[in-house]
Amino acid sequence: MKKLVRILLTIVVPATAVLGFRWYQYVDNRESPFDEVGIALNAAMPGPINLWGCDRLKLTSRNAARLRHRRWSEVEIDWH
Questions:
Q1: How many C-beta atoms lie closer than 10 Å to residue 53's C-beta?
Q2: Is the pLDDT of residue 24 over 60?
Q3: Are 29 and 57 contacting, i.e. CB atoms less than 8 angstroms apart?
Q4: Which of 2, 10, 25, 77 yields a CA-CA distance of 20 to 30 A from 62?
């Protein structure tokens, strides 16, 4: 029985860590909110975690859009 528990923990703990990191990487994304894996992981999260993830994604996507716009608007082009 101990061996079965150890095997299950060896599988479950790393899988949870990897999927949790991948999910957090998606909701803290600063490039694009259209990542298919991240969307599926966020949809599978329980209600409060999903809501927090959606709010975080909206915030980081909005900030990323502002930063991209600022970078392009600060570029000076020498036409001569």
A1: 20
A2: yes
A3: yes
A4: 77
